[in-house]
Design goal:
Strand content: 15-25%
Structural class: alpha/beta
CATH architecture of the largest domain: 3-Layer(aba) Sandwich
CATH class of the largest domain: Alpha Beta
Distance between the termini: 26 Å
Strand order of the largest sheet: 3-2-1-4-5-6-7
Number of helices: 15
Radius of gyration: 22 Å
CATH topology of the largest domain: Rossmann fold
CATH superfamily of the largest domain: Glycogen Phosphorylase B
Largest sheet: 7 strands, parallel
């Protein structure tokens, strides 16, 4: 296995562009993985920069259908298409992204003797916790997988509970990362002791709870300003709420930005505000902010606490009053903010995408060899 390139088949059943955190992560991950030949299954249209990451990018043609009356037929058709591709590609291993989605289910039905490593991203876990049919798919994919990778122990525990703790020994934690080599850190921390220039970036939906940041601003003692960068179904409601609270001049909204542009803008702010209140697989945007030297105020969720610890300022998830107190503390205490900036930079250095890629490749080689020679070796030290 070490003498030739490892052939990996993976994919995400979406258009092949950097449209979400998971898509960006996968693009970075396989671009950083050494000694591999990766085939990616996705949807048209295909971003050319994205295409350059993979040795082969194949667009799926089966018409996509959501859960409902036509879902079983859709999975059957997708399975037929995927089976033909597996027969042609002959990969050493399959990486099933999103262990509860249709493409992963198609992989399990067509893999044969090819080992599968399932990779949990978070949204499928959140859906499976609400839906019995989605939970059944998660269980089917987990049962067919030699290993199940999650980025945090907190998400691993949620998967473990969803699957009745039948596959605990297959759960392995490999933290995600970013391309630290591309980061531009600002020259110095802000010395402002009054209102801070705050930034929030992410999808504008209920789970991301951007409303918490908007309402917190109306409760602060100091005239902080907030820039919201993102798109989603709650954009108009958030704008109306900001106006109703008298924050027209203190809250600005901008649509989602390509990552390179977002990274260029991050150093212009004093601090980052993270507001997710439900499931958060990892929170890559937090590491991006920290890597650019921004102190962060974060909703104290188990998975987020796991990756940030004392390197950020926690507050009660979904609680504007709690966030307002945290922001005022950060605003009036420059020394505290300076310490959080240093802690942020130190913490971000732990999450390089090259480390993620190396750990996932090492696990992949172990799984492939175990299928070839029998008997999966003991899991690495960071496994659950």
């Amino acid at each position: 296995m070490t003498a030739k390139r490892l052939k990996i088949l993976t994919g995400i059943n979406r258009i092949s562009v950097p449209s979400s955190g998971s898509m960006i992560l996968v693009n970075d991950l396989y671009g950083a993985m050494p000694d591999t030949c990766t085939t990616f299954l996705g949807r048209a249209p295909v971003d050319q920069d994205w295409k350059a990451t993979f040795d082969h990018l194949i667009t799926l043609s089966t018409t996509k259908r959501p859960q409902g009356p036509g879902f079983d037929r859709y999975v059957d058709e997708l399975t037929h298409e995927v089976g033909a591709l597996i027969e042609k590609i002959q990969p050493n291993v399959i990486h099933a992204q999103y262990l509860g989605f249709a493409l992963s289910l198609a992989f399990t039905r067509t893999a044969g003797n090819i080992p599968i490593i399932a990779i949990a991203h978070g949204p499928e876990v959140m859906v499976a916790e609400r839906s019995a049919s989605e939970r059944e798919i998660v269980n089917q994919v987990a049962a067919a997988s030699a290993a199940i990778v999650t980025p945090t122990a907190a998400l691993a525990d949620r998967v473990d509970r969803l699957t009745g703790r039948r596959f605990t020994d297959r759960l392995i934690v490999i933290p995600w990362g970013i391309r630290l080599s591309d980061i531009r850190v600002r020259n110095q921390s802000s010395t402002a002791t009054g209102g801070l220039s705050l930034v929030h970036a992410g999808r504008l939906d209920d789970n991301k709870s951007t409303i918490t940041a908007v309402e917190a601003l109306a409760l602060t003692d100091r005239p902080h300003r907030l820039t919201v960068i993102g798109s989603g179904p709650l954009r108009e409601r958030l704008e109306r709420r900001a106006i109703a609270l008298g924050l027209r001049g203190r809250v600005q909204f901008h649509p989602s930005l390509p990552r390179a542009e977002l990274w260029c803008r991050l150093p212009n702010f004093d601090a980052f505000v993270f507001t997710t209140r439900g499931v958060e697989a990892f929170g890559l945007v937090l590491i991006e902010a920290q890597a650019h030297g921004l102190p962060v105020a974060y909703s104290d969720l188990p998975g987020v606490r796991e990756i940030l610890g004392s390197s950020g300022l926690p507050y009660a998830p979904g609680n504007p009053r709690s966030l307002a107190l945290a922001l005022d503390e950060m605003g009036r205490d420059f020394r505290r903010r300076e310490a959080l900036t240093e802690a942020a930079l130190n913490n971000a250095r732990r999450y390089d995408i090259t480390t993620t890629a190396r750990q996932l490749r090492e696990l992949t080689v172990r799984v492939v060899l175990s299928y070839k020679y029998g008997g999966l070796p003991a899991p690495p030290a960071n496994a659950r």
